[in-house]
From TrEMBL:
This is Inner-membrane translocator. One of its GO terms (biological process) is amino acid transport. Belongs to the binding-protein-dependent transport system permease family. LivHM subfamily. The chain crosses the membrane at residues 49-67, 100-121, 133-154, 161-184. It comes from Pseudomonas amygdali pv. photiniae. PANTHER family: ABC TRANSPORTER PERMEASE PROTEIN (PTHR11795:SF447), BRANCHED-CHAIN AMINO ACID TRANSPORT SYSTEM PERMEASE PROTEIN LIVH (PTHR11795). One of its GO terms (molecular function) is transmembrane transporter activity. One of its GO terms (cellular component) is plasma membrane. Keywords: Amino-acid transport, Cell membrane, Membrane, Transmembrane, Transmembrane helix, Transport. It is a multi-pass membrane protein.
C-alpha cells in the first residue's frame, strides 16, 4: 500500500509536468443535472443518487466475482495461503495480474464518478487517501463486507460529528476512535482467518 502511494506521488508530478497543475471540470450529462425534490426544503441531487446506485451495483458485482466465480476462488486461495495455492496448481502471478487489473478498473470507475461531484486534477485523490487507508484497515484488509460497512460507518460518523464540531475536528475524533478500536482489534473489525 505504501509502495502504491509512493508511485502515486511520482505519477502526480509527472502529470503536472505534462498536463499542468490546473483543475479541470467535466460537464455533467443532461439527465444527471438537477435534483429530486422529496419535500419542501429537501432535495437530492441526481448525480449523487446515480453515484450511490452505481456503488451498490459495483459492490454487488465485485462480491459475485469474488464469491461465485472460479477466478474469485483463486484470488481468495492466493490471499489466504499463497504457497499452498501455488502448490495446488494456481498460477499466482496471473492471479496477481487479474487482481491488479480489477483494482485499477475500480479506481477508474471511482475517478470518473468523482468528476461528477467536483473538478479534478493531478492531486485530486490525495485528500481521500487517508480516509481510504482508514476504511480498509478498520474494516479488515481481506474483508469486502468489512470494507463496505467500515466506509459507511466512518462516513456517517464524520458527517454526524460535523454538525456538532468543525470538519477537521470531526475527522480527528473519527481517527481517534478508529485508533482506539484498532488497539483492541488490530486486524480490523471483520478480519478473516488466514490459513498458514
Amino acid at each position: 500500500m505504501l509502495a502504491t502511494w509512493g508511485l502515486s506521488l511520482v505519477l502526480q508530478q509527472l502529470f503536472r509536468q505534462v498536463f499542468g497543475p490546473k483543475e479541470v471540470s467535466v460537464p455533467t450529462v443532461q439527465w444527471l443535472q438537477g435534483a429530486w425534490k422529496i419535500s419542501e426544503g429537501l432535495e437530492l441531487p441526481l448525480n449523487r443518487i446515480f453515484i450511490i446506485g452505481l456503488t451498490f451495483v459495483i459492490a454487488a458485482a465485485v462480491f459475485l466475482f469474488l464469491y461465485r466465480s472460479r477466478w474469485g476462488l483463486r484470488i481468495r486461495a492466493v490471499t489466504q495461503n499463497r504457497a499452498m495455492a501455488g502448490a495446488a496448481g494456481i498460477n499466482t502471478a496471473r492471479v496477481d495480474s487479474v487482481t491488479f487489473a480489477l483494482g485499477c478498473g475500480l479506481a477508474g470507475i471511482a475517478g470518473s464518478s468523482f468528476t461528477m461531484l467536483a473538478s479534478t486534477g493531478p492531486v485530486s485523490g490525495q485528500q481521500y487517501l487517508v480516509d481510504t487507508f482508514i476504511v480498509v484497515v478498520f474494516g479488515g484488509v481481506e474483508s469486502l463486507l468489512g470494507t463496505f460497512l467500515s466506509a459507511f460507518a466512518i462516513g456517517q460518523t464524520q458527517i454526524s460529528l460535523e454538525y456538532l464540531t468543525t470538519g477537521s475536528m470531526a475527522k480527528a475524533i473519527t481517527l481517534l476512535v478508529v485508533i482506539v478500536l484498532l488497539f483492541f482489534r488490530p486486524n480490523g473489525l471483520f478480519a478473516t482467518k488466514v490459513r498458514r
